[in-house]
Q: What sequence folds into this?
């Protein structure tokens, strides 16, 4: 009888251990698409109007530029998100990025990366608000070259799929008249570490959320050269909110926001 009881207890213990391990594995898989630091911000929809200014709360600073708004992380030395509106008229302009180079924002009293952090690091200086979206103003374009708008980015991604997505956004602005864009980095397990003596964090991935005429679409592209095609990188804004923790386009009426963010239609976006 004692032997049977011992075997029964042993079986219960083994079953408990297996269940615990399975639960732990499931939890780990779920956390693969969560940031290390949960976000509670509601990124601005479009661009905050007003003169250039910096408002800081702890390590996060909201900086308003002529053409875009950035939530900047002083600890990581990269933006958390960048937000702006792009109209069809703004997709055209005479201003060129020729001779422009990344530099620190001299008017923002915040810790910033420096050029030597990126030099020979193996990572490109990746715009979050792309310069080509601001050809309508020389000042706005120059401000996209501040390190407050820059992340270490894989060069193949920077010049490939990410660039293609940026061009698509300009196409959508022309098609729909205007779009709202929120874009930025994602940090999961920080597999790439940091670069430079200032320890600029290297993102694991990048996101982009786009709103146009009561419809939306979102994307995640990993910070590597071998991303899937754009269709497979696409998702609903609701799904991006689950992964990033951000609440996008919160200025919409709640019922409209829930409707717009729940689904996406690749055909409507020409994908």
A:
């Amino acid at each position: 009888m004692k032997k049977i009881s011992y075997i029964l207890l042993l079986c219960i213990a083994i079953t408990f251990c297996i269940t615990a391990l399975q639960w732990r594995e499931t939890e780990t898989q779920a956390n693969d698409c969560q940031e290390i630091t949960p976000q509670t911000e509601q990124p601005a929809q479009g661009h905050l109007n007003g003169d250039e200014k910096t408002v800081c709360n702890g390590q996060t600073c909201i900086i308003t530029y002529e053409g875009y708004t950035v939530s900047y992380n002083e600890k990581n030395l990269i933006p958390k998100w960048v937000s702006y509106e792009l109209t069809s008229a703004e997709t055209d302009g005479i201003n060129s990025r020729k001779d422009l180079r990344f530099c620190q924002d001299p008017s923002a009293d915040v810790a910033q990366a420096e050029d030597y952090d990126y030099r020979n690091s193996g990572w490109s200086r990746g715009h979050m608000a792309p310069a080509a979206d601001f050809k309508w103003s020389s000042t706005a374009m120059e401000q996209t070259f501040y390190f407050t708008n820059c992340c270490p980015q894989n060069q193949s991604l920077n010049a490939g799929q990410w660039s293609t997505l940026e061009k698509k956004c300009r196409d959508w602005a022309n098609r729909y008249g205007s779009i709202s864009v929120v874009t930025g980095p994602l940090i999961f397990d920080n597999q790439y570490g940091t670069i430079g003596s200032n320890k600029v964090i290297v993102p694991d991935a990048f996101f982009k959320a786009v709103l146009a005429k009561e419809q939306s679409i979102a994307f995640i592209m990993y910070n590597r050269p071998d991303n899937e095609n754009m269709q497979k990188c696409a998702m609903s804004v609701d799904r991006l909110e689950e992964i990033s923790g951000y609440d996008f386009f919160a200025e919409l009426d709640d019922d409209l926001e829930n409707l717009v963010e729940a689904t996406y239609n690749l055909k409507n976006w020409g994908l």
Notes: The two ends are 69 Å apart (CA to CA). The CA atoms of residues 157 and 226 lie 8 Å apart. The first helix runs from residue 2 to 31.
